[in-house]
Amino acid sequence: MFKITMEKECGCFKRSGMESGKIFDNKDDAMIEAKEWAAEMSETFCKKHTFSILEDGNDLIIKVDMN
Hints:
- This protein is α+β, with helices and mostly antiparallel strands.
- Helix content is 36%, strand content 36%.
- The chain has one domain (2-66): Ubiquitin-like (UB roll) (Roll), CATH 3.10.20.
């Protein structure tokens, strides 16, 4: 099982309706989803943060960095 989680849930993430902790059966599907989330958040959120993916075993953590 592979899990996507947010490092920190910024205000934009909370308002988006996206859910941290989504679970997948395989790594490829989880990575595709994590990349889509990071790209969507970087493009559509308030631009105060940038989002990247950190692999930690079976967890994919979406990191939140200040712009």
